[in-house]
Amino acid sequence: MKVLVTLIALISFTSFSQDAKAEKILNALSAKLKANPDFYIEFNAHLKNSASGLNESNTGKGWVKGDKFHSSYGENTRISNGVKSWTILKEEKSVYVTDADDEDEDAINPKKLMTVWEKGFTSKYDKETKLGTETVQVINLYPKNASKVEYHTITLYINASNDLKKVIMKTKDGTVMTYSVTKFEPSKSIPDSKFVFDKSKYPGYKIIED
């Protein structure tokens, strides 16, 4: 019995230490991003689901200024001025307009990609590993309200400079979404016009209001 109690205590202490370590790393990452709320990002994305045969790769980029963002992923574009969001689908020649606050919980934009851990998750430190030639810390996130989202685990890879290098999202249907940050430039001078939807640039597109 004494051995069992000691083992349980050891496991509990280790779990607490890992969570504390994860929190320390995430706090440093958050502090760096809060010091640079405006940035430009480029990333590679890979979506895979063995059951459905999904195996898709694409590139994306985005500009973020506070709560505003402008992003492109493949041929699609998303723009948000912090109040309204516009999702522009080139193949459909359609623009979907929604309130920024009504964004899908599972939708990823450059702002959310870089701050995904900040609310709604418990975190657990996993390990130190190599990402290419770079040493990174691996942290797993688990949603507190799992029934409200489609994913069950998000894994972050963070380097010694407190830069987010990779994000892996695993969904309940077996899809694995991997986002690798290839470029991050903080404190860019981004004009507010970047976050305004200009209808004249999309002639013939159908505007669909939510």
Helix and strand arrangement:
Layout: H1 2-35, E1 38-49, E2 54-65, E3 68-73, E4 76-80, E5 84-89, E6 94-99, H2 110-115, E7 121-131, E8 134-143, E9 151-159, E10 164-171, E11 176-186, E12 206-209
Parallel strand pairs: 6-12
Antiparallel strand pairs: 1-2, 1-11, 2-3, 3-4, 4-5, 5-6, 7-8, 8-9, 9-10, 10-11
Radius of gyration, whole Å: 19 Å
Number of domains as seen in the coordinates: 1
CATH topology (fold) name: outer membrane lipoprotein receptor (LolB), chain A
**Overall mean pLDDT:** 84
What is the spatial order of strands in the main beta sheet?
7-8-9-10-11-1-2-3-4-5-6-12
* The top level CATH class name: Mainly Beta
* Strand content bin: over 45%
- Which CATH architecture would you pick? Clam
CATH superfamily: Lipoprotein localisation LolA/LolB/LppX
- State the distance separating the first and last CA atoms: 61 Å
- Count the E strands: 12
Give the class from helix and strand content and strand pairing: alpha+beta
Main sheet record: 12 strands, mixed
The helicity comes to 10-25%
Order of helices and strands: HEEEEEEHEEEEEE
Q: What is the tally of helical segments?
A: 2
Low-confidence parts, pLDDT < 50 over ≥5 residues?
1-18
How would the global form be characterised? globular
